[in-house]
Amino acid sequence: MIIDTTGVHPKITLEEIRMATEFFAKELMPRAWDKLYIDINFSYLEKMHGSVERLSRYEYQIDLSKRVGRKTAITTIAHEMVHIKQMIRGELVMKIDHNKWNGVVFAANYDYYDRPWEIEAYGREVGLSYKYFNSLGKDIK
Prior knowledge:
The protein is about 40% helix and about 25% strand. It is of the alpha/beta class.
């Protein structure tokens, strides 16, 4: 697995960003994690904590907001890694004008919180983050 970063995050080290990303990849994609190339870009996102873009089957870019603290940054990486798992397995196909979830087409303007891929990502981010912090034996602050 290759993890590149662009910039720095004011509240979390690059080492922890890499550790968390690898941890989530191994949890979610035990057979594919070592094939992944992930570029993590730190920026001042206005309305979201993060986003992910597929560049090729195993190549992705995660944008992570510099505005969030350590715990939210880790949780956001977990969330975006769930989306990467969804795309690698073919569960989620994202297009400009629509998205496909397990073969069902959803309009691009379908309500964000009703999207099944977001429901899974929000649900999994909690457990994944807990497992990550627990594996470190550190406080979740």
